[in-house]
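Take a specimen:
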Amino acid sequence: MRKRTFRKLATLALCVVLGSSVYAFGDPYGRFEPAVAAAATDWGLSFQTEGSAPIGNATAAELASYNAYYIGDTTQKVIYLTFDAGFENGNTAAILDALKKHNATACFFLVGNYIETAPDLVQRMVDEGHLVGNHTYTHPDMSRISDPDDFAQELGKLEDAYQALIGQPLPKFYRPPQGKYSIENLEQARALGYTSVFWSLAYVDWYTDNQPTAEQAFSKLIPRIHPGAIVLLHSTSATNAAILDELLTRWEAEGYAFGRLTDLQRSF
């Protein structure tokens, strides 16, 4: 019954999105594809009112039943900062500097390559109080993995790499690569003790050879911020590294504080 309800809600949300003012993301984060089967979905959003939470593929309450979230408490001016980090290209240090200046904690969703090639930065993330989340070891399309053992192996290899480097267990936060997921994925992640984390605000920042200007970034990130926002940024973005200090300053000036993903469960 819960699976049927989830699929109906996802389909309804998708129809609403396609029929309204759509703000979705091109590859690799959340493109809408109507031909995608109901069991496999690309996460996407529709922003309809400036300063208010967007509509997602499924409701926050339905996702919470799978220990999954795309937004926090929409009555509180709290922002959850997250960074996807597939590799290191020289921008993470500046991002960490800005976060430290604002006493803001974030969750960095890492893949195996990042842990192997930038261990000092991973250690710095942990030392400065940030969470490290599981973005899988090789960044595959996890919605194509139906076997629970194969799903667990992809997350487990990242856990092992983190444990070997840091000497403590990886925090149990999981972000599906490219925002691709299925109901089975959510259930598999929950069975492994994970919280699945989507997002309610992002912009096209991942093309390293075609970075947005600061003005373009602010035009997306300032008016669309909203209470309870889970913000997805990429640590490979030179624009993000350059603007983060000012961005956090401007969000603080609007009365926002920065929360930790560990507080999400308390919002529902």
Summary: The radius of gyration is 17 Å. Residues 1-38 have pLDDT under 50 and may be disordered. The chain is about 35% helix and 15% strand. The first strand starts at residue 40 and ends at 42.
